Every structure is written in C-alpha cells, then in structure tokens.
C-alpha cells in the first residue's frame, strides 16, 4: 500500500513539474499580454473619470487584483475609493450579496459616488457598473490597442475580448477590511481545529471584497434592490488559508486536470469549485502532517471523490457562505456529465498512477 502511495506521489510530482509548471508559465505570459491592454484601457477611463483609478499593479511578477478563471478567461478587480460614508448591510436575504447604505446623518453630497445612490439611500452596484461600462466602451475606441480589443456585447458586465482569444472581465469593487460579514459568521466551525485561532484572526483582518457583478443566486429574478446589491468575494482570505504544506501544489494539479479534462459543455466546473473543495478538505484533515508532500495522493483523491459527490447531489456550498450554492443555475445534464468524467479521471489516477503521464 505504502509503495503504491509513494508511486502516486512520485507521478503527481512529475505531473506538477511537467504539466502544471507549463500551464503556469503559459498563463503568466498571457497575463502580461492581457494586462498591457487592460492597463491601457483603464488609463483612458481614468482620464475621462478620475474616480475610476486603475488598481492593477505588478508586485513580484504577479498582478494584484487579477484572478485567473481559466487559461483564456480572467477577472480584474478594480478597487474604488471612499466607501466610508456607507454602512455594510448583510442580513442574509440575498445569498452571497450585501448592500451599502448611506450612514445615518450622512448627506449624499458627502459621498464621492453621489449620483449612484438610490432614493432609499443605497449605493447601487448596477448603476456604478453601467457608468463604468460606458466609460470602458469609449476608452476601447481611443486606446492604442483598439485593433485587438473589443467589448463583449449582450451583458451588463464589463467584458473585453482581446485578440479574439482571451476574455477579461473588469469588476468595480470595494475592499472591506477590519469587518467580517454576518453571513459568514459560522466560520470557523467551533468543533473543527483548522485553521487555528491565529490564522483565523489573520484571515478575518484580511477581510473581503464587494464586487459589482451579476450575482449567482439572483439570476433570473432581479428586483431593483437585488440589482443594487454587491457580491461578496473572499479571494485574499482563501489564498491566505492555502499557504502551508502541499495545499497550493494540490490546487495547481486540480486546476491543470480541470483545464485539460473537465472543460465541458455548459461549463459546469471552474477552478473556483476546485479551490472551494480544497478548503473543505483542509477541514477534514486539520493536522499539518496531513498536508505533507507524502500525503499529496490521498488529498487529491479525497477532493476528486468529494467533487463527484457534489456533482451527483447538484450542490456545492461556498466555503464561507454555505447558503450560497456554487452550482446554482448550472444545467443538470452538464453536472451529470462532469460527475461521470471526474469519476473516470479519479479511477484512472487511483488504479494506475502512470496514467498521469498521459493526462
């Protein structure tokens, strides 16, 4: 049994070196290319409207605020200034979302975003996004890359298609530090020892983002209050939880397997599902020794089996917001096809570690 485990870990490390590192290098190259174009567009936006300042910056060869959705799809989070005059209201009525309400006694005119405040005093995510979309459309026509970039039509999101190959979504957002959403108050579970009080304090201090984008749980039934709502996002908190042991290596292997074998019609699975299941696996195996290099095979198998179970139940709860189902709105047939394909993949890896050479 130990020899079989060791063989699997050897093959996974080989897979990581050959496939995952190649994927990372290719994505890093794409990101550099894409960020040149996006920075140029955002520079134009800033000239027209100084409230939208580009926060896309390169730090240690990584772009801050850039999320990789897939090797051809990216999201840039554009941080807005001065949220201060608004209260963060998160009563759980909109899973995965919250609203920003003008603080009592504050005048509208005190806000930098005065014309986007609704009659009832909410800062409207939709109105800000709509204004931003108009500005980006104008900037695309003026920027020096106008021959290779165009707006994606028929969406309220701000999406650019670059060189007909890549899609980048630019999402206006507010960074919220020093507070923690009520809808995530159940985290961490009292009976689960991971990640430990010090890391929990770090994660909560890191805070979360409020994004102006269409919400998972609201598609198809948007009332005006809902379209004014902001989507909660915990990217920095999640990344901080995955820092030690072989967690990041495990995620890298999962993403590579997904990109190569689980990119299916109806797009049932994205890399965020992989990250979510990895966080749940950390809770199931709370000891640091469970994340030693020698356990890589066991952890990967555990996550793939959990993924199959979620696909069959058609439910994947968000790690911090368990009332939010990340499979909401996905076609059942696509989830079924993904369950079958994941099972084939898991069986292949479990029964024959050398099959990773071909995967």
Automatic annotation (TrEMBL):
Keyword Nucleus: yes
Record domain Mab-21-like nucleotidyltransferase: where: 62-242
Domain Mab-21-like HhH/H2TH-like residues, every copy: 246-343
Taxonomy, superkingdom: Eukaryota
Major place of residence: cytoplasm
A GO-annotated cellular component: cytoplasm
Key words, A-Z: Cytoplasm, Developmental protein, Nucleus
One Gene Ontology biological process: cornea development in camera-type eye
InterPro entries per record: Mab-21-like_nuc_Trfase (IPR046903), Mab-21_HhH/H2TH-like (IPR046906), MAB21L/cGLR (IPR024810)
Cytoplasm is among the record's keywords: yes
Stored SMART domains: Mab-21 (SM01265)
Localization per Swiss-Prot or TrEMBL: Cytoplasm; Nucleus
Any Pfam family the entry gives: Mab-21_C
Record-stated family: Belongs to the mab-21 family.
Protein name: Mab-21-like 2
Organism: Pygocentrus nattereri (Red-bellied piranha)
Lineage: Eukaryota, Metazoa, Chordata, Craniata, Vertebrata
